[in-house]
Amino acid sequence: MAEPSRATLLVEAFANTIDVEEATDALSDLAGLRSWLSDHGLPSDVDERDFHQARLLRAGLRERLLANNGEEPDERVLAEAERVLDYLPLTVSLSVETPLAAEGPLAIIAAAWATTAATGEWQRLKRCPNHACAWVFWDGTRSRTRRWCSMRVCGNRAKVRAHAERRRTT
Ligand SMILES: [Zn+2]
After folding, report:
1. In this predicted model, what pLDDT tens digit does every residue of 5-28 receive, in sequence order?
2. pLDDT 10s digits, 114-160
3. Measured between alpha carbons, how far apart are the two ends of the chain, in Å?
């Protein structure tokens, strides 16, 4: 099984700061964002603007990861996140002092996404298509065909539902 890099784990953790099933959101306010950032070893001196951008970036990322699973993404949400990415202070260079000039935690998260994208790992990062779950997971299968966050939970639920629907229509 392929293992995710640290960069991908950070992207995954950021995407999963919202838990649809548990109805919790670690980024529900600025204080929540600060404490999540410091828990993950990232700079946490953020303001309301960063908070707003973090929410837009997360929403877009989650749409992207849903699309990775063969579902239709919300293009408007993706476009809003793209605008955030366009203006993040992020520069890569060969300078010894600042090989990666990433100002602020969002730029660091964007850099992690760049790593995930550059290594092709992004194709294994997917959002569960069960909208009551919507958990982001790493697909470590050789064939990269895992669709549900967990075959035991969501996969089975989907199967049971399909079975029930078939019975209703016949
Ligand atoms: Zn799921």
Report:
1. 999 999 999 999 999 988 999 999
2. 999 999 999 999 999 998 899 999 999 999 999 998 766 787 777 77
3. 41
CATH of 6-169 given 2.60.40, 2.40.10, 1.10.3300, 3.40.50: 1.10.3300
Q: What separation in Å is there between the alpha carbon of 93 and the centre of ligand 1?
A: 39
Residue type, 47: D
Cα(57) to centroid(ligand 1), Å:
21
Which residue matches tokens 């298509």?
129
Which amino acid makes up residue 19?
Answer: D
The closest alpha carbon to 15, from 54, 46, 43, belongs to 54
